[in-house]
């Protein structure tokens, strides 16, 4: 099965009129993605399993010390085609390439599709891998609600899976010897190096916080300014302050999701709910920035007669990927780069090594097993939007790199 064929089979699933993707967990688009996973795995002669948390696995062989690769198939609202699917499609294409060239693995190989990596429907990112590793309380996960009020448990049950068994899966985790996730690069670092494929060094600490600004609804035409308790004002001041504090600290702070009640043109809002996504190179910096934003929101709320409450939704500490694995992958990826092609490697022949501000299931797994990531160049540097891209030659370079990494790890 060629990369191109696999890619084009998956491409139409969940594509919105905007050209972006809406592949939210447990929706019909997700079910189609999951069926594609099963059909593709079976086509390659792999054994398919769904774990207690809804993650899908496709096994070549059985036993312990497995080499596992994969990513996720869900998307952000109007996301790009590559974030997640490039990793899953490349994993299947790499396994297909190893089979075609008669490689006999000495340990099992598996492809995984982790559910709800983006947290786009239920709020907590990397939920499938966090459940697997025990990083999320299953009772909390079951009760998470989507914007329509549907719980994770209800949605999973409606998709035909049993949410009753949710939770840590230590025996499955113990079977994983190494995890490697290939992902489209979500910035312009590789464009600047001129290389098609790079290796990850670290993931910035990051998290999500839910802010509620509670004021009082009232008439837009008759309520004197002095009598207003307008949460929009507090929210607006918080957005500007967050940007300022983050810029001063060398961090990032984004309010990209907001809901307003009652959402009427001629009524002062009663409630604004907004989600802060913040990331920084160091945990201490991240903590400080979020504290500053919380404090300035509260201070402004006092002036506006608005009550501000802040709830941490998810926090991910800094991830430093396994150094030995990272360096051996950089050497392998450098060596697999086609001569004179788009894959320019560094002077010592190794692929570039780069940190990222984006979160991944690999980051969650790295606390438990030796883990590495490969990034494929994204010429637009855009991600979480329809312009996200990776050129066909770079995608194939990614598959070649992943295939040589898997072969190396599985035949050691
Ligand atoms: O949001 C993120 O960092 C990732 O793309 N899931
Ligand atoms: Mn993403
Ligand atoms: Mn992703
Ligand atoms: Mn009226």
TrEMBL record:
PANTHER family named in the record: ALLANTOATE AMIDOHYDROLASE (PTHR32494:SF5), ALLANTOATE DEIMINASE-RELATED (PTHR32494)
Transmembrane in keyword set: no
Keywords: Hydrolase
SUPFAM superfamilies reported for this sequence: Bacterial exopeptidase dimerisation domain (SSF55031), Zn-dependent exopeptidases (SSF53187)
Family: Belongs to the peptidase M20 family.
UniProt xrefs under Pfam families: Peptidase_M20
Name of the protein this chain belongs to: Allantoate amidohydrolase
Organism this protein belongs to: Cryptosporangium minutisporangium
């Amino acid at each position: 099965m060629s990369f191109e064929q696999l890619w084009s089979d998956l491409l139409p699933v969940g594509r919105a009129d905007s050209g972006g993707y809406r592949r939210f967990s447990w929706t019909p688009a997700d079910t189609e993605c999951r069926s594609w996973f099963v059909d593709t795995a079976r086509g390659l002669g792999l054994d398919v399993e769904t774990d207690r948390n809804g993650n899908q696995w496709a096994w070549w062989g059985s036993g312990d010390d497995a080499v596992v690769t994969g990513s996720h198939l869900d998307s952000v609202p109007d996301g790009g085609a590559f974030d997640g699917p490039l990793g899953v499609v490349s994993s299947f294409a790499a396994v297909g390439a190893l089979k075609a060239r008669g490689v006999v693995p000495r340990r099992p190989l598996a492809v995984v599709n982790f559910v709800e990596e983006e947290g786009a429907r239920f709020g907590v990112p990397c939920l499938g891998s966090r459940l697997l590793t025990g990083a999320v309380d299953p009772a909390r996960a079951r009760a998470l609600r989507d914007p329509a009020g549907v719980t994770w448990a209800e949605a999973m049950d409606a998709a035909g899976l049993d949410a009753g068994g949710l939770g840590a899966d230590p025996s499955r985790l113990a079977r994983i010897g190494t995890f490697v996730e290939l992902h489209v690069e979500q910035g312009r670092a590789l464009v600047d190096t001129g290389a098609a494929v790079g290796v990850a060094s670290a993931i910035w600490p990051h998290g999500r916080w839910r802010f509620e600004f509670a004021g009082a609804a009232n008439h837009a035409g008759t309520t004197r300014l002095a009598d207003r308790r307008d949460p929009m004002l507090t929210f607006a001041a918080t957005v500007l302050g967050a940007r300022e504090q983050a810029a001063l600290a060398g961090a990032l702070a984004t309010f990209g999701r907001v809901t307003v009640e009652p959402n009427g043109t001629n009524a002062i809002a009663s409630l604004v709910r907004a989600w802060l996504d913040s990331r920084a190179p160091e945990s201490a910096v991240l903590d400080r920035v979020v504290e500053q934003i919380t404090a300035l929101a509260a201070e402004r709320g006092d002036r506006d007669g608005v009550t501000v409450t802040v709830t941490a939704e998810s926090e991910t500490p800094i991830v430093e990927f396994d150094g030995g694995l990272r360096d051996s992958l950089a050497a392998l990826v450098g060596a697999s780069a086609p001569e004179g092609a788009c894959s320019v490697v560094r002077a010592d022949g190794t692929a570039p090594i780069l940190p990222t501000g984006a979160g991944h299931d690999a980051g969650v797994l790295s606390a438990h097993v030796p883990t590495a990531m490969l990034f494929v160049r994204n010429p637009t540097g855009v991600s979480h939007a329809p312009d996200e891209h990776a050129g066909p030659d770079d995608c194939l370079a990614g598959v070649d790199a992943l295939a040589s990494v898997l072969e190396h790890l599985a035949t050691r």
